[in-house]
Amino acid sequence: MAMAGTQVPVIAIDGPSASGKGTVAAAVAQHLGWHYLDSGALYRIVGLAAGDRGLDLDNDAEISRITLNLNIKFDDDRVLLDGLDVGQRIRGEAAGAAASRVGALPGVRHALLALQQGFRRPPGLVADGRDMGSVVFPDAVLKIYLTASAEERAERRYKQLIAKGTGASMAALLRGIRERDFRDIHRAAAPLLKCPDAVEIDSTAMPVEAVVARVLQLFQRR
Ligand code: C5P
After folding, report:
1. Domain coordinates of the chain in residue numbers?
2. Which is the most buried residue in 49, 152, 189, 202, by most CB within 10 A?
3. Whose CA is nearest to atom 10 of ligand 1?
């Protein structure tokens, strides 16, 4: 018999921006042979689509309306919006800032809820974001809250951008990360928070492999 949606196990990995959630979640999913949901990519796509349509990024009614009609596909490593590969564009700092603004809108969060829950398919799902454990998959078998100091996160982003050949300023990155943290933590709709039942991992001084190993070990103990 097929597993009903809610019987499919979920590992939820939440935390602030640039904490390494995406890398860790994708590696855990690959190790287990599970599906992976990068929920931040959905908010980034909405931010991008709203900007492209010239909408005010605080206009909840209009942005939730377009969110319900967006044609989004994840195809291996590609992210398609209306058939166009937007993978590169959504990774930029501007899309991140736009995502954080549209992520504060309750209607947009609601519009994305069913879409995110639809990624829960056998044999399992690893989902990363801000509210995976608190709102989207409250019955997750394992909830992780992954943090790192703001300085360490800015430095990781800096190294990524330099490796890609993009110029970057440490001071601007640190300021951007702090602003995004502030907005994500203080918003009324699904603020970034550590669930009481989440295990906190501070990755400031940990290599990514060690974080992945720790998550897998916590999962095997469940
Ligand atoms: O994780 P990532 O940095 O790609 O997310 C971009 C922004 O999207 C975050 O700063 C946050 O405001 C928003 N977001 C959210 N809820 C999620 C994932 C992302 O509000 N589950």
Report:
1. 9-220
2. 49
3. 100
pTM of the full structure: 0.93
CATH superfamily of 9-220: P-loop containing nucleotide triphosphate hydrolases (3.40.50.300)
Check if 129 has its Cβ closer than 6 Å to any atom of ligand 1: yes
Counting as low any pLDDT under 50, the low residues of the chain are 1
Closest to 74 (Cα-Cα) out of 26, 141, 18: 26
Complete edge-to-edge strand list for the sheet that includes strand 35-38? 35-38, 125-129, 10-14, 142-147, 199-202
Write down the pLDDT at residue 1: 45
Instruction: Please say whether the beta carbons of 87 and 77 come within 8 A.
Output: yes
Tokens found for residue 133? 């454990």
Pocket flag, ligand 1, residue 15 (CB < 6 Å): no
SS3 per residue for 30-84: HHHCCEEEEHHHHHHHHHHHHHHCCCCCCCHHHHHHHHHCCCEEEECCEEEECCE
Residue 90 carries which side chain, given as an amino acid letter? Answer: I
Does any ligand 1 atom lie closer than 6 A to the CB of residue 131?
A: yes
Query: Which is it for strands 10-14 and 125-129: parallel, antiparallel or unpaired?
Result: parallel
CA of 79: how far to CAs of 3, 5, 171, in Å? 27, 24, 30
Question: What pLDDT sits at residue 190?
Answer: 87
**Ligand 1 within 6 A of 180 CB?**
yes
